[in-house]
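Note to self: keep these together.
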Amino acid sequence: MGRLDNSEFLKKVSDILGKNDGKSSVYLTQKRLIPALDIDDAGKGNVINDLSSNVNHIDTEFENTSTYPILIRVSLNGKDIKDKKDKIKLSTVVETERLDQFWTEYVQVIKTGFVGLKKKEKKKSKKGKVSK
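Structure:
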C-alpha cells in the first residue's frame, strides 16, 4: 500500500488497533526521510551532507541547516495471519511544520488503541545470604 495522507493514516491506525484488540503484534516505526541521490550526482563524487546539526562534527566544515520529513510506519503481524498478503502495512510522511500537531493526534490514537496492555512482571530478586 502507498503512503497515506496524515489524517487518513490516523483513522486507519485507529480502526486497526480497535479491531486488533491485542491479538496480534503491532510494530510502530519512525525514521527521518532523506531525499534520494540522483545516479548522475553519485558518479561525480558528490557527497551527501546530511549530518545532524545538533552534534559537533570535527572532520567536516559543513553545518546542516536543512530539515527532513519523518516517515512513520505501522505494520500488523500475528499468529492468525498466515499469508503475507493478509499482513497490514501503513505509512505516512509528516512534514516538520506539522510534526507537533501530528504527534499529539498520533499519541492519542495509540493510547486509545492499546487498552489491553499489561505491565511487565518484575522478577523477584533473591535475597543475599547474611554471613555471621
